[in-house]
From TrEMBL:
<dbReference type="GO" id="GO:0051536">
    <property type="term" value="F:iron-sulfur cluster binding"/>
</dbReference>
<dbReference type="InterPro" id="IPR050377">
    <property type="entry name" value="Radical_SAM_PqqE_MftC-like"/>
</dbReference>
<keyword id="KW-0411">Iron-sulfur</keyword>
<dbReference type="InterPro" id="IPR007197">
    <property type="entry name" value="rSAM"/>
</dbReference>
<dbReference type="InterPro" id="IPR013785">
    <property type="entry name" value="Aldolase_TIM"/>
</dbReference>
<protein>
    <submittedName>
        <fullName>MoaA/NifB/PqqE/SkfB family radical SAM enzyme</fullName>
    </submittedName>
</protein>
<keyword id="KW-0408">Iron</keyword>
<keyword id="KW-0949">S-adenosyl-L-methionine</keyword>
<dbReference type="InterPro" id="IPR058240">
    <property type="entry name" value="rSAM_sf"/>
</dbReference>
<dbReference type="GO" id="GO:0003824">
    <property type="term" value="F:catalytic activity"/>
</dbReference>
<dbReference type="InterPro" id="IPR006638">
    <property type="entry name" value="Elp3/MiaA/NifB-like_rSAM"/>
</dbReference>
<keyword id="KW-0479">Metal-binding</keyword>
<dbReference type="Pfam" id="PF04055">
    <property type="entry name" value="Radical_SAM"/>
</dbReference>
<dbReference type="GO" id="GO:0046872">
    <property type="term" value="F:metal ion binding"/>
</dbReference>
<feature type="domain" description="Radical SAM core">
    <location>
        <begin position="1"/>
        <end position="242"/>
    </location>
</feature>
């Protein structure tokens, strides 16, 4: 059984930030009206699987097709069982990449534990190279944390890593329509900080989102974004970036709100998405989730990765390409490059 699949695994979702564009939605909007639609995420953890169920599933990853597990939240490192789950995943001989807001990295025991566990990559979210702008886009829920703390967390992890090759450390940036310059500004900041890789990604909001008109790219924004992406890939630097074809997908995605066509899509073949409640989907695309027939809905509850992912189809054409698909390529096809100590743009 080949091990070539990536598992995007969303664990418990509380987070120190209250980003209004978060794909989990906001606590404020979900408290009075908790979402009950299939596949819709929420920071309210009413149906999250308990730690024992997560650990039981993690133990079945050995001998499964899963090569790499990308752990996301919310903020997974604020939930103590996450480190225990990571340990089990590493024991199953899988790569582990963890996505974080960076604040937990300021706690020395967390940074040291990630090193000790042999985590392969740490991707930190930061949406602006300007402190005030970032903190407006990513406001702290308590008012205690912000841009400076995120940078402190990155520096702390790099310091603890020392001259080791792992974990590779990167920055992910959500690019919004008013600020195309963040594509290159964030790359310069990432280079100054000494991180290893950088991935800008287009914001993806549903048309009924209250910030859709303000933040979502339109066709008239394409030229400014394309110019910034060209600069990013043309400038010499040591940062590892996604394959240049990523820039073309970025532009294709923001050029329309209609679904696009992807030949040989890896969703459901080499990529799977697990929600905190244990639901398993071919990928995190809201359009693909909505198109999943009820009889094809699965869960990791009492499940075994060796059988759950055993009968994978070949990559097939998909007609549901959209903005929330774009950053799946770095997770699946580009991650070996981003985690390679010798890689650069």
């Amino acid at each position: 059984m080949p091990r070539d699949a990536t598992l995007l695994w969303a664990l418990r979702s509380p987070c120190a930030f209250a980003c209004p564009h978060c794909y989990f939605g906001t606590i404020e909007e979900h408290k009075p009206a908790p979402p009950n639609e299939v596949g819709v995420l929420s920071h309210l953890s009413r149906n999250d699987l308990p730690p024992r169920a997560l650990k039981a599933f993690a133990r079945t990853l050995a001998g499964s097709p899963i090569e790499r597990v990308v752990i996301v939240g919310g903020e997974p490192l604020d939930w103590p069982p996450t480190l225990e789950v990571i340990e089990l995943i590493k024991e199953a001989d899988c790569q582990v990449v963890i996505a974080t807001n960076g604040i937990p990295l300021t706690r020395p025991p967390v940074a040291r534990r990630l090193i000790a566990l042999g985590v392969d990559g740490v991707s930190v979210s930061l949406d602006s190279a300007d402190a005030q702008t970032n903190d407006r886009l990513r406001p702290s829920r308590s008012g205690r944390f912000g841009y400076d703390d995120v940078l402190a967390g990155i520096r702390a992890l790099l310091e603890v890593r020392g001259d080791r090759h792992t974990p590779r450390v990167g920055i992910y940036t959500v690019v919004m329509r008013q600020r195309p310059q963040e594509i290159t500004d964030m790359a310069h900041l990432a280079d100054e900080l000494g991180v290893d890789y950088y991935v800008p990604q287009p914001i993806s909001l549903t048309p009924d989102h209250k910030l859709f008109k303000e933040l979502t790219h339109r066709r008239e924004d394409v030229q400014a974004v394309a110019e910034q992406l060209d600069r990013l890939y043309d400038e010499p630097g040591r940062l590892a970036l996604p394959d240049p074809s990523y820039a073309r997908r970025f532009i294709a995605a923001i050029s329309t709100q209609e679904s696009g066509h992807v030949p040989d899509c890896f969703g459901g073949a080499r990529l799977f998405f697990i929600q905190p409640d244990g639901s398993v989907w071919d990928c995190p695309s809201d359009r693909r989730i909505a198109a999943t027939a009820p009889e094809r809905q699965r869960t990791i509850r009492d499940g075994d990765a060796r059988t759950l992912f055993a009968t994978r189809p070949a990559c097939t054409d998909c007609s549901l390409f959209s903005r929330d698909c774009v950053n799946m390529w770095p997770l699946v096809l580009d991650m070996p490059r981003l985690l390679n100590p010798g890689a650069s743009r």
